[in-house]
Amino acid sequence: MQKIAMLGSGFIGRFYADSIHGQRGRDRVVAIYARSEANAKKFADDYQCAFWSTDMEEVITHPDVTMVCVALPNNLHEAAVMLCVKHKKAVVCTKPLGRNAEEAFRMMQAVEEAGIFAGYLEDLCYTPKFLKALSSVKDGALGRILWAKSRETHPGPHSNWFWDKEQAGGGCILDLGCHCIEIARNFIGKDVKPVEVMCWAATQVKPIEAEDHAIALVKYENGAIGQLEVSWTFRGGMDLRDEVMGTEGTIWINNFLRTGFEMYTSGKGGDYVAEKAESNTGWLFPVGDEVNDLGYNHMFTDMFNSFEQGTTPAETFYDGYVVNAVIDAAYRSAQTKQWEPVDLPVWRGHEGLSQAKTLVGYDENYYLIKEEVTHDGRHKIILKHKHSQQIVERDL
Ligand SMILES: NC(=O)c1ccc[n+]([C@@H]2O[C@H](COP(=O)([O-])OP(=O)(O)OC[C@H]3O[C@@H](n4cnc5c(N)ncnc54)[C@H](O)[C@@H]3O)[C@@H](O)[C@H]2O)c1
């Protein structure tokens, strides 16, 4: 059983508490830290936490607490993690790990040196659809992964601090791109190095300093490409989609909008439909079980089981640091309009991979390019000669 200190009583703190109390059933949020007494007390009442305080260190050091969950604005992650390091408390931290790779690197180094358990709460790498897709990819169902694209777009976050570049550390690239990068990284292979990034970013709609819309390509050392599409100006709800393309297959995942659950209402019922739904009348796209469909349940189960069994969770502070490093390169590229290298002073995967090729031999003289039955009934093959390089076409 885990006894959790929740730092932050806001949007994600409540989703996390719902999940922690939900899936395994035996874990509890026992202590809550919030800035205001009123928020701390309200959260403590709602989740039956025995202890609440507006003093973060008091909550972290509470003797009942076995693990700390950081659910605070981005500019407070590092200080909260460092307090856990100081008191040698196991810690899990929400995304993005840092506002930049420097912060994330310091956090990673500190937890590793202290030898405490640390998990990166990247929920979208734990959705049921993602987990099934990843196991198919790992089993080879898609062959060699060539392209992994992830999209997170919605009408913008719900609290003031997200819109302030200093507190948030960036705009939608940092807030949403962190999910997309880690999703693509999982599909392409976490041991394959992300080497450079090309990014377009713009502030198209909102009166803010940071970007509210961006698209980026992340090149991996083996030739695979990751793609992210993020926006805080998308209208119509929260769009979470992944696409994976390999030499042997394709996966499309729709995690949130248009998942096969469609509802019409004239508006006579309750208000809440799903996270960031923009409407509660007309045709709607509700989500069956948000806490599960967004990955929170499987994420906390992995974190708690790993902590209890002394193993490493699927998402670690090292992963959070790699994601931050890719994001830093994206910000540089948006400025320079060039491919920018990903700066990874610590890298624990393969080094020096060359661009992989998949050549399918047809016979001793030819490679197969394509085989197809056309609408006029011909069975065609297109071949390339192994030595002359000539490309020929034959009917079978
Ligand atoms: N899918 C996800 O994994 C996901 C979704 C939403 C948010 N998040 C992350 O969770 C973190 C918190 O986001 P949120 O949406 O819950 O924000 P929020 O504004 O709803 O809540 C933040 C909470 O932190 C505390 N807080 C706020 N400002 C503070 C300050 N200056 N000093 C001390 N405490 C303060 C308050 O208790 C507040 O309720 C962010 O890092 C965000 O990126 C993750």
| CATH homologous superfamily caption of the largest domain | Dihydrodipicolinate Reductase, domain 2
Order of helical and strand elements? EHEHEHEHEHEHEHHHEEEEEEEHHHEEEE
Bound molecules: nicotinamide-adenine-dinucleotide
Structural class: alpha/beta
CATH level-3 fold name of the largest domain: Dihydrodipicolinate Reductase, domain 2
Largest beta-sheet characterization: 7 strands, mixed
Architecture of the largest domain, CATH level 2? 2-Layer Sandwich
Adjacency order of strands in the biggest sheet: 12-11-7-10-9-8-15
Strand content: 25-35%
Distance between the termini: 65 Å
Question: How many DSSP helices?
Answer: 12
Average pLDDT: 95
CATH top level of the largest domain is Alpha Beta
Q: Helix fraction?
A: 25-40%
Q: Can you describe what's shown?
A:
It is globular and about 75 Å long. It has helices at residues 11-22, 37-47, 56-60, 77-86, 101-114, 128-138, 165-168, 172-175, 177-188, 290-293, 296-309, 317-336; strands at 3-7, 28-33, 51-53, 67-70, 90-94, 118-121, 145-153, 194-202, 213-220, 225-231, 239-246, 250-254, 263-265, 282-284, 340-341, 366-373, 379-385, 391-395. It has 3 domains: 3-123, Rossmann fold; 125-293 and 313-341, Dihydrodipicolinate Reductase, domain 2 (2-Layer Sandwich), CATH 3.30.360; 366-395, no CATH class. It contains 12 helices and 18 strands. The longest helix is centred in the C-terminal third of the chain and has 20 residues, at 317-336. It binds nicotinamide-adenine-dinucleotide. Nicotinamide-adenine-dinucleotide is lined by residues 8-13, 34-35, 39, 71-74, 76, 94-95, 121, 123, 159, 161, 175.
